[in-house]
Specification:
Order of helices and strands: HHHHHHHHHHHHHHHH
Helix content: 55-70%
CATH architecture of the largest domain: Up-down Bundle
Radius of gyration: 27 Å
Number of helices: 16
CATH class of the largest domain: Mainly Alpha
Strand content: under 5%
Mean pLDDT: 76
Number of domains: 3
Largest sheet: none
Number of strands: 0
Low-confidence stretches: 1-19, 245-254
Distance between the termini: 44 Å
Structural class: mainly alpha
Length: 332
């Protein structure tokens, strides 16, 4: 697939004045492109359909190949290596795709502005809205008979929602992780309703078939980040960063606490048989770089994933019957 250019000005500018002026500049630039009317969009869709069919025929693609820029043109590779008809179709399809994007820039801005009250810089919202618009242009199938603006509306909205989920992070969370966070949030709400309480980390891990440490990572990623310069008192003499520095200084009994915790853990594991110790240690990442999934453990031990889950549950029940709160030790 051809590399897509970033639309609009870069949001990586310093100072609110500069950022606001760039957003205003983007609004002005976006308004230069005319909106496509119904007839103009149908003509553009017919051109795309012809281009995709020519390229599909030239590459001998299967008859059921989706007629989209991403699939058809993405299969072309280096257009110069093919026939003149394929090259012309490629250039025309690229021009049509660009036209679809440019004529809907105002739609992307309109959707981004709807979410402007969530604490995210408008320039970030617009950039992600443009990403959704580009994805829509590359996945739009003109043979389906839908209007592109209707199709693009969903993609743009989804990307803006992902932007809100990521928050104001310096390093944006990957899309697959954002999906995991959404799944975790939805599952937490369902389990809270069914259990009548907040589900533990271990319970969430079992339902999502993930390790407890992974659940902890997702929870941490879902938390919004704050500036360390936020004042804690009115005169601004004490900031959040000052309190964090004080909290980082370990108390004198910190090494002893870690030692006691390790001894308690060893004593608890001593109540289990060898297989239970192995499964529980690997599921919670005890003495390992990271926790392991049910699939990895089942393949290594030569048993089913359900059997691994049963052993894990039996081991936890055994510990719960002999100790007050083993979940505190295992970090659930």
């Amino acid at each position: 697939m051809q590399k897509t250019d970033r639309l609009g000005p870069s949001p990586t500018t310093s100072g609110h004045g500069e950022r606001d002026s760039l957003v205003g500049l983007y609004f002005r630039d976006a308004s230069r492109y005319e909106l496509l009317g119904d007839k103009a969009e149908r003509r553009l869709s017919r051109k795309l359909t012809v281009c995709y069919r020519l390229i599909s025929a030239g590459l001998a693609l299967p008859a059921d190949t989706p007629q989209t820029f991403r699939t058809v043109v993405g299969s072309l590779g280096d257009a110069c290596a093919f026939s003149p008809r394929c090259r012309r179709a490629f250039h025309l399809a690229t021009a049509c795709r660009r036209k679809l994007i440019q004529s809907n820039l105002r739609l992307a801005v309109h959707i981004a502005r709807r979410y402007g009250q969530h604490g995210i810089p408008m320039s970030d919202l617009i950039q992600d809205a443009n990403v959704g618009l580009i994805k829509a242009a590359e996945r739009f199938d003109p043979t389906k008979g839908f209007r592109f603006s209707t199709y693009a509306y969903w993609w743009i909205s989804e990307e803006v929602k992902r932007c809100l989920q990521r928050g104001t992070r310096l390093v944006h969370t990957p899309e697959n992780v954002v999906d995991e966070i959404r799944q975790l949030h939805s599952l937490s709400l369902k389990m809270h309703q069914s259990l009548g309480r907040t589900p533990s980390q271990a319970e969430l891990a079992r339902e999502m078939e993930a390790s407890p440490s992974r659940i902890g990572e997702l929870r941490a990623l879902a938390a919004r980040e704050l500036s360390t310069d936020v004042p804690l008192i009115e005169d601004g003499s004490v900031t959040l960063g000052d309190s964090l520095e004080a909290a980082r200084q370990a108390s004198p009994d910190h090494p002893m606490s870690a030692r006691d915790r390790r001894r308690t853990l060893e004593r608890m594991l001593g109540e289990l048989d060898d297989r239970e110790q192995t499964v529980l240690s690997r599921r919670f990442g005890l003495g390992l770089p990271e926790a392991e999934t049910l699939q990895v453990i089942s393949e290594d031990l030569g048993i089913s994933r359900e059997r691994v889950r049963q052993i894990e549950k039996a081991a936890i029940r055994k510990l719960q019957s002999r100790f007050d709160n083993p979940e505190d030790v295992f970090g659930a």
